[in-house]
Structure to design on (437 residues):
């Protein structure tokens, strides 16, 4: 788990109260700013504690590691109100194992444990909006309020985070009953005892080691009863991508991790009805956001191509009624490129039926997850058409409606989960949502 270089660094530093981890791959353009913000935050908000910033790099070729090592605060007097009592160490180390963010996190967590850290924060290397205050918001709830897991809460452009908004947030909320708005946000605070739990796990060599790490961390924290909160971090400005771009690998690994964890924590989510809010730290305010270009036509074509080429795979996962409704949807999308919509109830059924098929057809899981991509793109295209003239508050309300639809469909999920292989399940009438106080 730890390289010789990492072990030497541990023996030299010996002890750290706080570890800040920054996984990276070819982020030379932005990582210097991230490191400087982390340095300033540790020095300003935790001057009495020792801190280490660890860059876990996946083999960058653009000078990322060099940018980390030379990053410094030009004039700390302009940034800090408290004089740092202890220096902040900066390390940049390569990680080994499956290429991906999870492998980088594993090394960061292992080093945090060896250094005896009381708290650890991890942040993305491509952030342009990170400020020193993020360190306080991610770490103080752990260090001084007894929380184990601090999830980020951002203002994001309405077309940024479409995997979160259309699948991961509504499904995770419906499954486990906590409204953690950004379960795959990428920037988290973690307690020492939760770090120890993560390192005990034996599934680091799966898709968790790639894009699945964020939802894996969030789900374990919620499902195993750790103390969870959120901190408002303002805007998330980063290297965002057009939802129509090739996000298929990320979608497969993230959604595959959600479905896999559903099997492990079945006893937890079966008993949950409705959802409840999570404590939120920080001062909420509106911020300006970068526009995100969207290629609607590419997403619509992907849906139609998927319908022509993947119906046999869809039929393994979906009920006959759901397939008929998708056929009607695709005919409408082909005939009226701007006037079609992907209804919430159809999307919820589609996702839940794929989750159940992922459970009962282990040999076909790869094909099933790949075939979900055009359906996801169709849903995103419909969402863009519906919300293109909405302001952010209206868009958030629209996402809330989707979340309630997932929660109301919980009886259908349980019935289908329990059904025999290949036996269609009648559509259950949605039960009233029981919001747990």
């Amino acid at each position: 788990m730890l390289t010789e270089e990492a072990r030497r660094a541990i023996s030299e530093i010996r002890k750290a109260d706080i570890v800040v981890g920054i996984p990276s791959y070819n982020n030379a353009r932005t990582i210097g700013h991230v490191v400087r913000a982390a340095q300033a935050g540790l020095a300003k908000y935790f001057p009495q504690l020792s801190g280490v910033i660890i860059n876990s790099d996946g083999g960058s070729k653009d000078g990322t590691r060099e940018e980390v090592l030379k990053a410094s605060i030009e004039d700390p007097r302009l940034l800090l109100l408290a004089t740092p009592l202890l220096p902040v160490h900066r390390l940049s180390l390569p990680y080994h194992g499956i290429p991906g963010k999870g492998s980088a996190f594993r090394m960061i967590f292992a080093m945090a444990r060896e250094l005896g850290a009381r708290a650890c924060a991890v942040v993305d290397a491509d952030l342009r909006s990170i400020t020193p205050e993020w360190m306080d918001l991610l770490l103080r709830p752990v260090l001084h309020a007894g929380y184990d897991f601090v999830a980020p809460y951002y203002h994001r452009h309405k077309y940024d985070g479409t995997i979160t908004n259309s699948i991961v947030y509504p499904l995770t909320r419906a499954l486990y009953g906590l409204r953690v708005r950004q379960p795959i946000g990428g920037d988290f605070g973690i307690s020492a005892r939760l770090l120890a739990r993560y390192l005990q796990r034996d599934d680091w060599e799966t898709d968790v080691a790639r894009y699945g790490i964020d939802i894996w961390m969030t789900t374990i924290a919620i499902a195993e009863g750790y103390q969870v909160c959120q901190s408002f971090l303002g805007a998330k400005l980063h290297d965002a991508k057009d939802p129509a771009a090739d996000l298929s690998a990320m979608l497969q690994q993230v959604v595959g991790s959600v479905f896999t964890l559903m099997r492990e924590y079945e006893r937890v989510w079966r008993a949950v009805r409705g959802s409840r809010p999570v404590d939120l730290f920080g001062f909420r305010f509106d911020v300006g956001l970068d526009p995100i270009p969207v290629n609607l036509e590419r997403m619509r074509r992907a849906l139609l191509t998927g319908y022509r080429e993947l119906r046999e795979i869809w039929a393994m996962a979906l009920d006959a009624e759901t397939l008929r409704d998708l056929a009607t949807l695709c005919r409408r999308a082909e005939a009226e490129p701007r006037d079609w919509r992907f209804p919430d109830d159809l999307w919820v059924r589609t996702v839940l039926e794929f989750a159940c098929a992922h459970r009962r057809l282990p040999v076909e899981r790869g094909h099933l997850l790949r075939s979900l991509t055009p359906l996801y793109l169709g849903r995103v295209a419909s969402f863009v058409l519906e919300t293109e003239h909405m302001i952010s508050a209206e868009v958030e309300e629209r996402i809330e409606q989707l979340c309630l639809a997932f929660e109301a469909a919980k009886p259908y999920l349980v019935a289908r989960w329990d059904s025999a292989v290949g036996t269609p399940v009648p559509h259950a009438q949605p039960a009233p949502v029981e919001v747990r106080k």
